[in-house]
Design brief:
Its EC number is 1.6.5.5. It catalyses: 2 a quinone + NADPH + H(+) = 2 a 1,4-benzosemiquinone + NADP(+). This is NADPH:quinone reductase. It holds the Pfam family ADH_zinc_N. This protein is α/β, with parallel strands linked by helices and about 325 residues long. α2 packs across α9. It folds into two domains: about 180 residues, Quinone Oxidoreductase, Chain A, domain 1 (Alpha-Beta Complex), CATH 3.90.180; about 120 residues, Rossmann fold (3-Layer(aba) Sandwich). Strands 3, 4, 5, 6, 7, 14 and 15 form a seven-stranded mixed β-sheet that branches. The protein has a six-stranded parallel β-sheet with strand order 10-9-8-11-12-13, with helices on both faces. It has a two-stranded antiparallel ribbon with strand order 1-2. The longest helix is centred in the middle third of the chain and has 21 residues. The chain is globular, with a radius of gyration of 20 Å. The chain is about 30% helix and about 25% strand. The protein has ten helices and 15 strands.
C-alpha cells in the first residue's frame, strides 16, 4: 500500500495526516506514477487552511511533483513505463503513488533531475507566465518583485535579469537581500528597515516601475500600486499575508490609469498545449543557463507538517522538497 498526506478538515499543520491509500489501476488516458520528489509551495498552505477551498474533503494536497511512469492506461501512446515525467499545477501531489491524466504531465529532458523538476515546475512555470505572458518583460524595463528571496522570487530575479530588465526586490532581512542580489536582483530592499515605495521612487527617479509582481497580498498591495509608473501593471499572484481588501476601481485611474490582474497558473496551463508551452519555455531557460534553483530544504513527505511550519514562518529560502 502507498502512503499519502491527507486533510480531513482544514486548519493548522496538525491536519496533515499520514495515511495509507489505495491507488488503483489507471483508467483510459491515465498514468500511474511512482513519485520521486514533491514540491512545497505557499498555495499548499492556502488549501490546508481553507483560504482556497478543495473540491472535497478529505483531500491530498500538493500541486507539483516528478516521478516515473509505473503503469499506463488504455489509449496512452505518448508515454511508456519507465518514462520520467513531471507536472504542475495538479492537486494531489503529497503521495508516494498516484493516478493522473496523461495530458497533465510532461516528459522530462535527460538534463533535468527529478529533484530539480519537482522544485521548479510550479515556480518556474509561474515565472514564465508572469514574465513572458502576463507582462512581457523587455530590455530596459524596471520591475519590482516582492518576496525576492522566495522560490518564485529568485527565479523571477534571474529570468528578468537575463531578459535585460533592472530588477528591484523586497526581502525581510539582510541575508535574504544578499541571496536575492546573488540571483540577479539589482536592488534588494529590506522592507523591515526602509520604506520600499520611497526607495523605488528614488531608484527610478520618481517615475515608478513598469510592473509589480506581488505574491504578498494584503500587507503590500496598496503600496505596490504607488510604485507603478502611469499605465503600469500590478500583477497580484498570491496573498501570503492575507487576502487583499476590496478595491475601489477609481483608485487605478487616480494613480495613473493602472492595469490590475490576478492571474493563476491553472488558467495559463488549462489545456495540454498551454502546459507544454509553459514547460518548454521553462526547460529552454534552464538549458540556456538563465535559471538555476537551489534546494536548501528537504523533508520526508511524512514530515510535511514541519515543512509547512517552516514555510509559513518564512524560515525557508529557494525551494523546498518533500521526499516520499
Amino acid at each position: 500500500m502507498a502512503h499519502a498526506i491527507r486533510i480531513h478538515k482544514t486548519g493548522g499543520t496538525e491536519v496533515l495526516q499520514w495515511e495509507e491509500i489505495e491507488v488503483g489501476q489507471p483508467a483510459a488516458r491515465q498514468l500511474r506514477l511512482k513519485q520521486t520528489a514533491i514540491g512545497l509551495n505557499f498555495i499548499d498552505i492556502y488549501f490546508r487552511t481553507g483560504l482556497y477551498r478543495a473540491a472535497q474533503l478529505p483531500f491530498i494536497p500538493g500541486m507539483e511533483a516528478a516521478g516515473v511512469v509505473a503503469e499506463v492506461g488504455a489509449d496512452v501512446t505518448e508515454f511508456a513505463v519507465g518514462d520520467r515525467v513531471a507536472y504542475a499545477p495538479i492537486m494531489g501531489a503529497y503521495t508516494q503513488e498516484r493516478l493522473i491524466d496523461a495530458d497533465k504531465v510532461v516528459k522530462l529532458p535527460d538534463t533535468i533531475t527529478d529533484e530539480v523538476a519537482a522544485a521548479i515546475m510550479l515556480k518556474g512555470m509561474t515565472a514564465y507566465y508572469l514574465l513572458r505572458q502576463t507582462y512581457c518583460v523587455k530590455p530596459g524595463d524596471t520591475i519590482l518583485i516582492h518576496a525576492a528571496a522566495g522560490g518564485v522570487g529568485l527565479l523571477v530575479c534571474q529570468w528578468a535579469k537575463h531578459l535585460g530588465a533592472t530588477v528591484i526586490g523586497t526581502v525581510g532581512n539582510e541575508a535574504k537581500a544578499a541571496l536575492a542580489k546573488a540571483n540577479g536582483c539589482d536592488y534588494p530592499i529590506v522592507y523591515t528597515k526602509e520604506d520600499f515605495v520611497q526607495r523605488v521612487k528614488t531608484l527610478t527617479d520618481g517615475r515608478g516601475v513598469a510592473v509589480v509582481y506581488d505574491s504578498v497580498g494584503k500587507d503590500t498591495f496598496m503600496a505596490s500600486l504607488d510604485c507603478l509608473r502611469p499605465l503600469g501593471m500590478m500583477v497580484s499572484f498570491g496573498q501570503a499575508s492575507g487576502a487583499v481588501d476590496p478595491l475601489e476601481l477609481s483608485v487605478l485611474s487616480q494613480k495613473g490609469s493602472l492595469f490590475l490582474t490576478r492571474p493563476t497558473l491553472m488558467d495559463y496551463t488549462a489545456t495540454h498545449s498551454q502546459l507544454v508551452t509553459c514547460a518548454n519555455g521553462l526547460f529552454e531557460a534552464l538549458a540556456q543557463g538563465a535559471l538555476s534553483i537551489a534546494i536548501p530544504q528537504r523533508f520526508a513527505l511524512a514530515d510535511a507538517a514541519h515543512a509547512h511550519a517552516a514555510l509559513e514562518s518564512r524560515q525557508t529560502t529557494g525551494a523546498t522538497l518533500l521526499l516520499p
